[in-house]
């Protein structure tokens, strides 16, 4: 978008690492080579604990028997590539990256469902007196990419402090997403845009702390721009518009399946963290217990996959923020949404 749009696809692999660090049990197999057909949903998704749980618990098989639909799945970090090649009907993406998805794949898309909020935090070492990003002017800020959540923080930094995140007010250090909080704890950077599920050890042992009262980019965006909103979304479900137009039954059934998954998350969240710790970048008993408590207090997964028009309008306001703060150009248009809250077929 603007300067970074051309780099978006190459960087998406790193962006999707916020979800996990290992392979998925339920999304195995190669991408479908077949063209779209009635009754079949080709779903490509980065490895995910809720999907693995539904697969292992037999929920996906039960859904297929009850609906008569088949879901062909594949696990990959390169969701954009499979989508561009015509091998997927539905993928996930951050909502604010969908215009880049359309530009790079040359496919018209529509957002059909929501999943989780953009959860990155600004973190500093525990002994650093900084209270906000303004106190960090000129210092080393670690990021894993100049797109993804960095786009949201760029807009927020300009709005809150009239500072440029990527254009001179910070010494930007690009590093591996899984190593940022460790680099911070060791003093090799002064702050980072970090994900809590990739910072469990350093948060647990008190080496680092989040600024802004622990609020995520989504929390601050809602507070400042869309009170009561739960976005912007780090992951939404995005589908080809032509496929959605021709397969309303499959779309509704897919959303029903994910609503079941969200209910399972709410009921069995601790079980999922224990069973699939790799998805939360934790391994030790101490870190697993910490992550359970942390997610209970800061759950970034939404309660329902469907949304109404007001939610779509609020989610679109992230583009208003990024345009008014110069993060993206005025030529970038909002993504298309398919409000379906309360619609079940």
From TrEMBL:
Residues forming the SsuA/THI5-like domain are 115-264
- At the top level, the lineage of the source is Bacteria
Matching entries from InterPro entries are given as: SsuA/THI5 (IPR015168)
Keywords, in A-Z order: Signal
What Pfam families does its record include?
A: NMT1
Q: Does the keyword Signal apply?
A: yes
The region annotated as signal peptide is 1-24
Record's protein name: Nitrate ABC transporter substrate-binding protein
What is the originating organism of this protein? Mycobacterium adipatum
